[in-house]
Backbone:
């Protein structure tokens, strides 16, 4: 039966929706397998982070470019290019390395570097994307309730639109949002999240701290049979801290220039090099 007919029948309630538990179980398994499936690719990752003042003017900006190299257990991230600048007077001052601080108390410097490390260069994620931002792995799914919404066409493929919200009484379940799940390979095509809770008013008043609009979106692209890569990821939100500090933060990450390689040959080369070094 043609896909468009199936979609019409689903929308009309004429056929039974797919088994959501099965869908999410397949997604969880594929999330676990995805790192191995991606290990045969080298690619370029570009990152852009900006801190913007309340008057709309740029306070600080960093552009990073990494080459992502597959290794036996975890991808290696090699910094290929870096550009940073911060506002000073009527112009900007450039700097050329991550973590740069231009004075003893550089709040913008600490914020932008912390965001880069936690949300774009996360040590628990081969792609660098914050490991707990998109709750589709098995352990993350346990913290959320999922609901099937509809089947639809996205980029020429049938996908299932699924929403998720935190389970009541479960700690560390911070997000709500929706995911488009590929109906054939049960891989995420797009996932969007937003913060599921609001900063308590007492914290806002006593500490002058608040976060507004916190949320992220990630898009995936299929490169081979069951091999899907995140190709774009980002978010924009507002931070207010310690009464006087306010910034709108924008962040964007793109992956491109994918090249297939043979990880086993790289591993063999590394082993031979290590043995030769030890023999000297």
Residues:
């Amino acid at each position: 039966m043609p896909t468009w007919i199936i979609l019409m029948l689903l929308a009309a309630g004429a056929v039974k929706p797919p088994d959501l538990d099965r869908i999410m179980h397949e997604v969880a398994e594929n999330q676990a397998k995805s790192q191995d499936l991606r290990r045969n690719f080298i690619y370029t990752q570009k990152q852009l982070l900006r801190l913007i003042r309340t008057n709309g003017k740029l306070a600080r900006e960093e552009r990073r470019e990494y080459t992502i190299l597959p290794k036996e257990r975890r991808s290696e991230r090699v910094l290929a290019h870096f550009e940073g600048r911060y506002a000073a007077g009527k112009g900007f001052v450039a700097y050329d390395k991550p973590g740069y601080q231009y004075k003893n108390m550089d709040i913008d410097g600490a914020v932008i570097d912390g965001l880069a490390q936690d949300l774009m260069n996360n040590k628990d994620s081969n792609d660098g994307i914050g490991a707990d931002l998109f709750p589709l792995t098995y352990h993350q799914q346990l913290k959320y309730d999922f609901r099937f919404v509809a089947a639809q066409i996205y980029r020429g493929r049938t996908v299932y639109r699924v929403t998720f919200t935190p389970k009541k009484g479960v700690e560390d379940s911070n997000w709500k949002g929706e995911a488009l799940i590929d109906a054939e390979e049960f891989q995420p095509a797009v996932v969007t999240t937003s913060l599921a809770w609001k900063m308590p008013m007492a914290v806002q008043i006593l500490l002058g701290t608040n976060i507004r609009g916190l949320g992220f979106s990630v898009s995936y692209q299929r490169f081979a049979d069951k091999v899907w890569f995140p190709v774009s990821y980002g978010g924009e939100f507002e931070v207010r801290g310690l009464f006087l500090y306010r910034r709108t933060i924008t962040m964007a990450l793109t992956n491109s220039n994918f090249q297939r390689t043979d990880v086993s040959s790289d591993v063999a080369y590394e082993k031979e090099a290590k043995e030769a070094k030890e023999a000297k």
User: Anything to note?
Assistant: Helices lie at 3-12, 20-37, 107-120, 138-141, 201-207, 263-279.
